Every structure is written in C-alpha cells, then in structure tokens.
Amino acid sequence: MPVGFTCRPATTADAAPIAEMSGVAVDEVEASLERPGLDASVDSLMVLDPAGDVAAWAWVRGRRSQVDVGAKYRGLGLGNGLVEWVERRAVESGTDRVAQTVDDEDHAGTTLLRARGYDVIATNWKLTKPVDEEPPQPELPAGITIRPFSGEDAQAAYQVIQDAFDDWQSRRWGFDEWARMTIERTTFAPGLSPVAFAGNELVGAAICLALPDSGAGYVEHLAVRADQRGKGIARALIARASLDFYRHGRPDLVLWTHSGTGALAMYERLGMTVQHSTTVFSRKL
C-alpha cells in the first residue's frame, strides 16, 4: 500500500462509506459481508487513506470476488494489491479459480485483470424501461395467476430461480445465501415482487427491490420454471412489477441480465434498452 494507507477487515459498520465509495446500496454491502460461507474477518479487506476514509475494498468467497477502488484513488496500486490479496486468499480457502466483475468504463481495472491472465467469461447488461403512463397488462396464459410475494413463497421461489440459473452460474447458491442476498435485504419489496402460479404451484417470480435515492423499480431476480416458459409468464411478471412500481412513484424499471441467460433479446422486445454493462473475468490459480 502507498505510504500512510492502512488495511483491515471490513465490518457491517463500514457499509455506508463502502457503499458510497463503490456506488452501490448500503444493504448490498451488508448482505455481501453477512452471506453464509464468507467470514468477513478473513475474507474481506478494506483500505483506508491517511485521513481514515475508505479508499478501496475487496471480498472473496469461493470462486467469487470483488475489488472496488474509489475513483480518486485509482492509479496508486491499490487495485493490484487487492487483486493479489484476493488470489492468495482464494488459494488459502482451497479454490483453484477466481472471478470478479469489472465495470466496462473502468479501463484501468480491465487492463489490470488482463495483464494478470484473466479471461472474459461473461457480460452483464443493465437495462431500463422508462414508463410515462400506467403500463398495460397482458392477458395471462390460461391457468396462470399472479399475486405479490409472501413469506410462504420463499422456498418455492428460491427453487425456481436457482433451477433457472443453474444453466449459467458456476455454483448453486444455498437457500440461506440466496435469502440473505435477496429477500432478507432491507430494500426487498415483497408487495412489489410478483409471483406466478399454475394452480397451487409457484412457476415464476420477480424478486424486486425499492432502492433508496432512486426513482426506479429494481428487479433483482426474474425466473420462470422450465416447463412453463414460452407462455408469456416472464412478460406478465415484468408488466406487473412495472405497474406496481409506477403506482408507488417509481415509474422506471431497471434490471440486469447475464449473457449466460440468453434473455437480452427478450427484454429488448419488451421495450427495455441497455444503459450500462460490466464484464466478468476469471483466472485459474
């Protein structure tokens, strides 16, 4: 680290300054530090500048990791130092590969990872859909009903979402980890998270967040059970979420999609447009 900079593990008490530095929600940082399988005392590291302000931070859990450096601290070697720490910690925990996501506007971060032998494995796109008037609702497929999420839906929603994500994610999340990263976040909005049923079986879910300081509704997870796809259920869930957020003063809808899902074209057909992108890099250790 540069002279005067110090390092220590991160705690949830640091969530607000980390979130401000990283440009994410406070409860996302809290969830990351409290996710099952991550011991923040050894799996996280925060860099403080000489004044004691957060300059950068990193965490690693299994093959997943993240390194964020504040804009005004870039070019000081903090990113390279944290990536080295991530790789060492990953090896110590018995992992043979590590991945992390870099904002496509962070050219220095991209150059750093490529220089260290990281390869591109996926792209993430942030899509938005401005809504100027109350969005119309499509006719539901025969036998399908939609209602807001309730606590009793948690296990079934988790199953549908993880089954859908198995095709592209490298590791299946356990229920406790999924819950901590979604429905246990303070910004989770159950009343604005529609779930679809075929009879008494949950077959689709849109897990939504009401992020502070945002005029948009945020869809964190969207999935439909494999045997129910192609019927327009995903479109209906998006439309219901958009309507509910609109009525709650959040007229725009935002979501991220992963290149492994193959869903980008579907979202574009629904009138959503790409506003931002990130790239997932991975390296064998």
From TrEMBL:
<keyword id="KW-0012">Acyltransferase</keyword>
<dbReference type="InterPro" id="IPR016181">
    <property type="entry name" value="Acyl_CoA_acyltransferase"/>
</dbReference>
<feature type="domain" description="N-acetyltransferase">
    <location>
        <begin position="144"/>
        <end position="285"/>
    </location>
</feature>
<keyword id="KW-0808">Transferase</keyword>
<dbReference type="InterPro" id="IPR050832">
    <property type="entry name" value="Bact_Acetyltransf"/>
</dbReference>
<protein>
    <recommendedName>
        <fullName>N-acetyltransferase domain-containing protein</fullName>
    </recommendedName>
</protein>
<feature type="domain" description="N-acetyltransferase">
    <location>
        <begin position="5"/>
        <end position="130"/>
    </location>
</feature>
<dbReference type="Pfam" id="PF00583">
    <property type="entry name" value="Acetyltransf_1"/>
</dbReference>
<dbReference type="InterPro" id="IPR000182">
    <property type="entry name" value="GNAT_dom"/>
</dbReference>
